[in-house]
Design brief:
Layout: E1 4-9, H1 16-27, E2 30-33, H2 34-48, H3 55-64, H4 72-75, H5 78-87, H6 91-106, E3 110-115, H7 118-122, E4 128-133, H8 136-149, H9 156-172, E5 185-188, H10 194-208
Parallel strand pairs: 1-3, 1-4, 2-3, 4-5
This protein binds cytidine-5'-monophosphate (C5P).
The site of cytidine-5'-monophosphate has 14 residues, from helix 2, helix 5 and helix 9.
Length: 209
């Protein structure tokens, strides 16, 4: 036995979250969007009026997070994604969130985790690792639709700029930068429907298991 872990990484709005949800349902696993954990900490600091640079306050918020009750609509706001990527450079904060994410993954029967450092840092022993990418234009279009569907009016050009800035910060940081694990399966969803991306991921995972 032991936990079955599927790691999914990639840049903002690459389609990894949708894939993670579908794969969790298909394989009967739990799902954790680790981006929400960084977003929730950033949101807690913003609500308390704390400085985003206050790592001690961020660590307290990380210990207090309830992984079962994220307010997804509110946390989806672009400014919270931006704040999340700013606090995500803090090594001691990352240690706390990574250890809680790992504990979640290791509970039986296992889980699908999506984020930036799942295959490289959080769950390097995952049975399957996907690195999901898509062109910036496709990602901006998808994310714009998603945010508008949550009732927030946004401009696609602003979303594109936000995505590019976050990608750069996430790839350039010293601690746990966004990059594919050496043994990750690369999946470019630019030209794929959700169904086609799901089938490609499932084929790879079935072979890896
Ligand atoms: O995936 P999402 O857009 O919700 O992530 C928000 C931010 O949280 C990312 O831009 C990144 O800086 C950070 N993050 C991270 N490691 C993860 C997941 C998210 O650093 N595993």
């Amino acid at each position: 036995a032991g936990a079955l872990v599927i790691a999914i990484d990639g840049p903002a709005a690459s389609g990894k979250g949708t894939l993670a949800r579908l794969l969790a349902t298909h394989y009967g696993l739990r799902h954790l969007d680790t981006g929400l954990t960084y977003r929730a900490v950033a949101n807690a600091l913003l609500e308390l009026g704390d400085e985003l640079g206050d790592e001690a306050a961020a660590i307290r918020a990380a210990h207090d997070l309830d992984f079962a009750t994220f307010d997804r609509d509110h946390l989806a706001l672009p400014e919270i994604g931006e704040a999340a990527s700013r606090i995500a450079v803090m090594p001691e904060l990352r240690k706390v969130l990574v250890s809680r994410q790992r504990a979640f993954a290791e509970d039986e029967p296992g889980a699908v985790l999506d984020g930036r450092d799942i295959g490289t840092v959080v769950c390097p022993d995952a049975v399957a690792k996907l690195y999901v990418i898509a062109s910036p234009e496709v990602r901006a279009r998808r994310r714009t639709q998603e945010v508008r569907a949550r009732g927030v009016p946004v401009e696609q050009a602003a979303i594109l700029a936000d995505i590019l800035k976050r990608d750069e910060r996430d790839m350039a940081r010293a601690d746990s930068p966004l990059k594919p694990a050496p043994d990750a399966y690369l999946l470019d969803t630019s030209e794929l429907s959700i169904e086609a991306a799901f089938r490609a991921a499932q084929d790879y995972i079935d072979r890896a298991m």
